[in-house]
TrEMBL record:
Source organism superkingdom: Bacteria
Protein name, as recorded: Alpha-galactosidase
Record-linked Gene3D superfamilies: Glycosidases
UniProt xrefs under InterPro entries: GH (IPR017853)
Length: 570
């Protein structure tokens, strides 16, 4: 790595990128990609954090690593320094503050300041790329969007407008900027080159709930939302944003994983032994429940007699799933997870019968639900009302252990399909027992469940929709989750195209983990058949439909099921 110095700048040529670091203002030019603003803001509950003076950068060279520190005077902190760490392949950007405060949000690649020139307001990095790749499914479906379009990587979401971006919760925290013009295809990816921008942080430092890419008029910054739940006393350093050239967005996601593993921030692969039965075909009853509902709530149809009926029809036509998922709502309460005797009058015996047939049984679990839990085991709002289960609370963790002994031990179930991880208890006024928040609190929830399940039944299968590499130690299989519908122009997006995109993200973020290909909802019978044919090549096939397609009412014939059986036996 070669550095040359002039009166106004440091010129760095690593062989993989060229970077010009200004000596007169807080900026750096990453040739061909970005004009990096080296202003950062770390807002607190009481202060916005505005930089009111920037000092010249200080360069320290350590072998083939160059570190540029940009000291800045802050209205909120005793000291603040933005650091660029340059290796031959990567550039890492972070901010360090000293003092006391509770963090609201953090911006990198820009922030609020009054510069030495007296220019004032919010500053952003200049973005020279044409498109930005988003690794999380969104509605409308838009994988590579114009670089002028915002996006969010988050653990918060639902089906409301502007919130259906947590189908993966959490997704890998890796964007990719491309030179090619996005062609408007919902899942199409232009040719390279690409610049990856990923977040380097382990679970302990992932205490934010959302990372937002906020572009405006040719500029952009990144905003981390800590929701006033992370306290600083002394000193604090933000997660680093790591830039690295890539040939494709998929390579950028792989680089993200490799970077976390290399720095000891993510496991190399799954932590539990993989068991052969995990790879067997899955039947999940949710699609059949929806198709049979006919104006009723599908949760009323998670019933023992209906599951027997559906499984018998599948077997009649050659489809014998290795694993059966009993979906929403087999339980009386989501929080305490006790079987509903009116719907499942003999669940223990039913599971034993399925075991005798050579099948395994998973139970659907709604994460975070406070239903049936005492408020003292929950995250609470300003009125003291339960908002979500609180995994930082020892009483709730003990409850999870008891639930696992009851469901995996007494009932002899074989694991869980864990859903709704995106219903995170977001809010700066919320109160939890412990101090973790954001991605970290979700990991604590899943880690508690995972450890308790494995203590009772070491081969229990835990399925989540959390394809962030640091979550590799709390899941055995990544579920691709619900299929969406339309692109940004209001046109239908083939389910198979969505499956391929999601599989590519999961396979590059967590290559050693199994993938549950899911299958709901399907827009039509034709889409369902095309999807079913593709599933074995992209993961563990999962069948959701038995009689008809819920969206169209189209009937599923015996020939259709026999065709699926043939595809899945190959």
């Amino acid at each position: 790595m070669r550095i040359t110095t002039t009166d106004t700048a440091y010129h760095l040529d690593s062989g993989h990128y060229r970077l010009t670091v200004s000596r007169t203002d807080p900026s750096a030019e990453l040739e061909g990609w970005m004009t990096l603003s080296l202003i950062a803001s770390v807002a607190t509950r009481s202060d916005r954090d505005e930089t009111y003076e920037t000092l010249p950068p200080v360069l320290a060279e350590r072998g083939d690593v160059a570190v540029f520190d940009f000291p800045q005077r802050s209205t909120a902190w005793e000291a603040k320094t933005v650091r660029l760490t340059c290796t031959p392949e990567t550039i890492a950007l972070e901010v360090r503050v000293e003092g006391d405060g509770v963090i609201g949000d953090v911006t990198l690649l820009g922030g609020r300041a009054v510069l030495n020139t007296r220019a004032a307001g919010t500053f952003r990095s200049g973005v020279h790329a044409r498109g930005v790749f988003n690794p999380t499914p969104t509605h409308p479906v838009h994988v590579v969007r114009p670089a002028s379009a915002p996006l969010a990587l988050t653990v918060i979401g639902d089906a409301s407008p502007g919130r259906l971006h947590a189908v993966f919760s959490p997704p890998p925290l890796a964007l990719a900027f491309g030179k090619g013009e996005p062609d408007g295809g919902a899942t199409s990816v232009p040719e390279g080159p690409w610049l990856g921008a990923s977040v380097r942080a382990g679970i302990a430092d992932l205490t934010f709930t959302e990372l937002r890419y906020e572009p405006l008029d040719g500029g952009a910054l990144l905003r981390f939302d800590y929701e006033c739940q992370t306290a600083v006393s002394g000193a604090w350093t933000s997660p680093a944003v790591v830039f690295r050239a890539a040939s494709s967005p998929w390579e950028a996601v792989s680089h993200h994983r490799e970077d976390l593993v290399e720095h000891g921030l993510a496991p190399q692969g799954p932590v539990a032994e993989r068991h052969d039965w995990w790879s067997g075909t899955i039947f999940c009853g949710w699609g059949a429940q929806c198709a049979r509902a006919a104006g009723r709530s599908p949760v009323e149809l998670s019933r023992q007699d209906l599951y027997d009926e559906w499984l018998a029809r599948l077997e009649e036509h050659g489809v014998v799933p290795a694993t059966v998922v009993i979906d929403d709502r087999w339980q009386l309460t989501y929080g305490n997870q006790e079987p509903d005797p009116a719907k499942w009058p003999g669940l223990r015996e039913w599971i034993a019968d399925r075991h005798a047939r050579g099948q395994r049984v998973l139970l659907w679990w709604r994460a975070w639900s406070p239903d049936g839990l005492p408020a003292e085991e929950c995250v609470t709002d300003a009125a003291g009302r339960a908002v979500a289960a609180d995994p930082s609370n020892p009483a709730y963790r003990r409850r999870i252990g008891e639930i696992m002994r009851r469901l995996l031990g007494d009932l002899d179930a074989d694991g869980f399909k864990i859903d709704f991880t995106q219903w995170f208890p977001s809010g700066s006024h919320l109160k939890a027992y412990g101090s973790t928040w954001g991605f970290s609190l979700l990991h604590e929830l899943l880690a508690t469940m995972y450890a308790a399940a494995k203590r009772v039944k070491p081969d229990a299968l835990m399925i989540t929709h959390t394809p962030h590499p640091a979550f590799g130690d709390v899941t055995d299989m990544i579920r691709l989750n619900d299929v969406l519908e339309l692109d940004a122009r209001g046109e239908p997006v083939p389910a198979v195209d969505q499956l391929r995109f999601r599989h590519a993200v999961a396979a590059h973020a967590m290559p050693e983990h199994l993938v549950d290909t899911d299958q709901w909802p399907m827009p039509s019978r034709a889409d369902w058949l095309a999807y079913a044919r593709e599933q074995p090549s992209l993961g563990v096939p999962a069948l959701y439909y038995v009689e008809s397609i819920d969206n169209t009412g189209e009937q599923i014939t015996g020939d259709d099921l026999r065709q699926v059986a043939t595809w899945w036996r190959r």
